[in-house]
Structures are given as structure tokens and as C-alpha cells.
Write the C-alpha cells for this entry.
Amino acid sequence: KKKYSAKYLFDMRGFWVDERIDGGIWDQKKWYFKLLYNYCKRIENKLISSSDAIISLTKAGRSEIQSWESYKSNPISVIPTCTDFKVFKLVQENNRVQEKEILGFQKKDIVISYLGSLGTWYMLDEMFDFIKMVSDKNNKIKFLFITHDDKSKVLSKIAEKELDISNFKVVSASRNEVPRFLQASNINLFFINPSYSKIASSPTKLGEVFSMGIPVICNGNVGDVEEIVNDIVAGGYVIKDFNNLNYIDAYKSINKLLKIQPDKIRENAKPYYDITYGVKSYLKVYEKIVSA
């Protein structure tokens, strides 16, 4: 850019540098990680200040960037992590019943699924506190974990909480297999650590489960999740805090969530998460850069 006046787009993809701190990856008590953090923040600030356009995954992230000293009024477009709606298709009830039976669940079981990695950002302890409370209240609710991580992480929590292991299934899935396993679920669950860097986070799984018409139970203070779940898609329940009172309220919402029409969730989510819309949004950004 300095030499040839080339234009460039800084595609932020979240607050990566701050995620190293919040995730405990770069321990700031160690001088070399502290040095690395400061060095990377200088690079980030330079990229922010001299870019011709910026992409943020969230509105919350955009607002935060605009408050930084390095921000110089560059245009910021919000484009969340998108989903291929042709891959993550709307769940049909007969397919849900069939997949439940394949996994060993009963037709009338309510299956709450979890999708993705365990630990670091995803709050396994808190999710199992919620699962324990739900299990104590309703033995017809079952749990499906779809993860590439070591199954022992889930199995140890089941043992720790003295839960009935027959109510759980833990499976590993390739990308192509994920929609098939998700079909068995009536609700998807995830709790994400609401740290500073997660202001800019757009959970990939949210678009995927909404594309299939599956409602969610999750927490707020993560990117635009609360606004999307409550207002844009109207497809879930957002807890306010990680305590038993909030877990009970989330449990009470289950019957209401099960009554939401899956096709309504999918249609509401499409303008926000469908990859075809994302492509058009990116194209507009590039066209503006080129024509400016």
C-alpha cells in the first residue's frame, strides 16, 4: 500500500489478538507472551488505521472498533459467519424420528444437542450444571454431543454429575455428517465464555442449526447472539447469567421452543446467515473499494 497505493480490505474475523489473552493461550505473566501481544496489537492497529474497508462479524464488534484510537472512519461492514443452506437443510419430522432411532433414542424423547469443540470458549461445566437440572426434572429429555474432541471430556462430566449415561450419545462427525446427526435434535444448546474478545464473535453453529430450523438455548454477551436469537430469528432462549434461577427459566422455555415452526426459524435466519447473501455483501464491499 505504501509503495504502490494498493487498496486493501481488512477482514477482521473477530478480535484474534485479544482471544489469545481471554483464552489463556498467551499468559501475560510471561514476558515473551506479553511482548508478543503488544507487537500483534500494534500490527492490528496499523491494519485498522490504513485499510480501505473493514469487515466485522458483528455489530457489537463494529461499535467497539469505532471506539479505538486507531480507527480512522474507514467504512465497516458487518457480515456474520455464513452457512450453506443447501447443506444444512430444513429438518423433516420423519427424518428426525429416524435419526433418533438410529442413535438409540425413542420417538417421543426430546433431544438437546451440542455441536462443536469442548473447552476454551465453550463452557462445559456450566452446560452440565444446566443438563443436571434438566435431567432431574424430566427423564424424557436426552442429550446428544456432536464433537471431534475426546469423548472422555463428556463422559467424565456425566460421571461427575451422577447422570444416567444411557440418556447421552456422544458422536464424532465429518462436516457432511453433521446435518444428519443434528436432525435428531429438537433443541441445540451452547454456552460461550462472554469475554471481551467475544464481542466480535459469530458462532458458526448458530447459522447451521437455524438453517435446519432448530431452536437454541444459549447465553448472551457474545457478539450479536442475543439480538439474533430474540429479535432477528426469534428462535431460542437466551439466559442472562449462569446460575440455577436462569437455568430453571431456560428449562421452562422448552415447551415454547418446541412449538416454534422450523421453517419460520430457517426463513428468518436466511437473510442473515445464508452464504448467498454473504457473497453479495462481500461483492458490494469490493466494488466500493475498487470504485472509490
